[in-house]
What we know:
By secondary structure, the protein is α+β, with helices and mostly antiparallel strands.
Amino acid sequence: MNMKITHLSIKIEEYNDIAELSEQDKTLLLKAWDACDSAYAPYSKFNVGAAVLLANGVVVTGNNQENAASPSGLCAERVAMYYASAQYPGIAMKAIAVAVKSEVVQLEEPASPCGSCRQVMAEYENLYQTKLRIILGSPHAKIQILDGISSLLPLTFYAEGLKK
Ligand code: THU
């Protein structure tokens, strides 16, 4: 029998308070937290903020933008990453922080990016050959840090010919 089983493992750093983070991670998470305030989320009332740190030191923020025709809305992570790519083409994305403020749900765990956002993270990580540090959570609740998109999206799909 030639069948083989492969087990993959991922590393998640967990913290209980933002005070335990490095200055760089802390600053990025606070920017994501602030960005929640300007989300346009009248339907879900689930305000998500994202902050992307670029290799040139610039931080670009975004938040979820909803729409009456719900599939037309977009998550905070993609708003921030697409804005970063549009404004700073050719500059690597080094880290992304994601936070949630919601008056309707109390989150026990950090919100984890949806599949589409993970796929977009993978695209830029591959493009820039720079691991994306992913910081999830809210300043005074549980925080998770992942070292690269392979921790969230193993066995990633890349376009033929563009995989570096
Ligand atoms: N949302 C995000 O912006 N990011 C996530 O990681 C999860 C979900 C948004 C989409 C929608 O506007 C709202 O949160 C509820 O799903």
